Amino acid sequence: MARDTGFPAADAENDFTRQRRRAELSRLVSWLRREPDDVNEILPFDEVVAAVGRVGERSLGLQVIPVNSIVGSVDRTRDFDRFFRPTSTRVRERWQRLAAAQRRGESVPPIQVYRIGSMHFVSDGHHRVSIAYAMHWSTIDAYVTEIQTKISPDGIAQRGDLVIKDHRRLFLTRVPLSGPQRAAVVVTDPWEYAEISQSVEAWGFRLMQEVGEFLSRETVARRWFGEEYLPVVRMLRAAEMLPDHTDAEAYLWVARERYRLVRRHVWNDEIIAELSHLAPRRHKPVSS
User: Fold this and answer.
1) How far apart are CA 200 and CA 96, in angstroms?
2) What's the domain of life for this entry (predicted)?
3) Backbone angles phi, psi at 189, to 5 degrees
4) Among 33, 102, 147, 285, fewest CB within 10 Å belongs to which?
5) pLDDT tens, position by position, for the chain (288 residues)?
6) Rounded Cα gap, residues 247 and 259, in angstroms
7) Which fold has domain 8-149?
C-alpha cells in the first residue's frame, strides 16, 4: 500500500487515482484471459430480485456488515465495478471530498443496503463503500433491509448466474416441489429446467386422465417425484449410467431417448439396459 503524505486532500486524490488504475488493470486482465464480460460488473439489485423472486422484506436496523459482502447496487451499476472501484472520473470530486473528510477524522453516516442471502446491495452510500474498499476496511456500519426470496440466492457470483436462477425459479413455480425433493432436482443448463417442467406437466396430464380427477400442481409435483423421477434415478444409479451428470440431467436424457426408441411412457430394466450403451460422458460443474 502506498505511503500516506499526511495531507488528507492529497492522499484522497492518490487513493482515487490508484483505484481507477486498478479498475482498468482488472478489466484488461479479464479481457486478456478471455473471461466473461460480467466478471467485473457490479450485481444489479433489480435483476437479482427478479431472478430469485421477491416474497417480502423486513427492516433489520443498524448493523455492522463485512465490506466484502457488498457486491451490488440499486442504481449505480455504471459508476463502479464489482469491487466498487470507480469506472470513470465522473465520481472523482465527491469521492475525494468524502475520502479527505474521513482522513481528517470526520464522522461518516451509515450506508443503507438491502440484504439478499449473504449479499448486500447499496441503496445509499456508494462512494463511502468505494472508499471503504480502497482503505481496506473489513466492516462498515449500515442500515439493513432484508429481502425474503422464493428461491435461495446461493451460488450467485456474477451477472451470468442470474440466468440459471431465473429458470430455476420458473421451474419451481410450475413444479412446486418442497424440502429435499426441491433440492434433488438440479441441472446446469438453464433451458433444461423448462424441458423438465414440460415433462412433468405432460406426466401430470396423463395422471389426471388415468385417475379421472383434477390434481393441483403441488400434488402432481409430489407424485411425479415419487412415482416417476425417483424410481428412474434409482435404476440409473444401479446401472451406473451418466455418473458425470446430475440426477435430473440423467433422468431427462433417458426420458428423451426412451420415448425415441420405444414410443411409450414406461420404465423397466430392459429399457435402461438398452439405453446404457448410448449414454454420453462429460464433466461439467454443477450449479444449484
Assistant:
1) 57
2) Bacteria
3) -95, 115
4) 285
5) 556 777 788 888 998 999 898 888 887 876 776 766 666 788 999 999 999 999 999 999 999 999 999 999 998 778 899 899 998 888 999 999 999 999 898 988 999 999 999 999 999 999 999 999 999 999 999 999 999 999 999 989 888 889 899 999 999 999 999 999 999 999 999 999 999 999 999 999 999 999 999 999 999 999 999 999 999 899 888 888 778 889 999 999 888 877 665 555 555 566 566 656 556 655 444 444
6) 18
7) 3.90.1530
Grid-cell match 461518516, residue found: 108
Give 158's DSSP letter. S
Residue 227, CA distances (Å) to 50, 71, 107, 202, 233 in order: 32, 42, 63, 14, 11
- The x, y and z cell numbers of residue 254, run together, are 433417458
Are residues 51 and 117 in contact, defined by beta-carbon separation less than 8 angstroms?
no
In Å, how far are 5, 14, 79, 93, 269 from 11, measured between CA atoms? 6, 5, 21, 14, 73
Assign 252 to helix, strand or coil. Answer: helix
CA atoms of 159 and 123, how far apart (whole Å)? 18
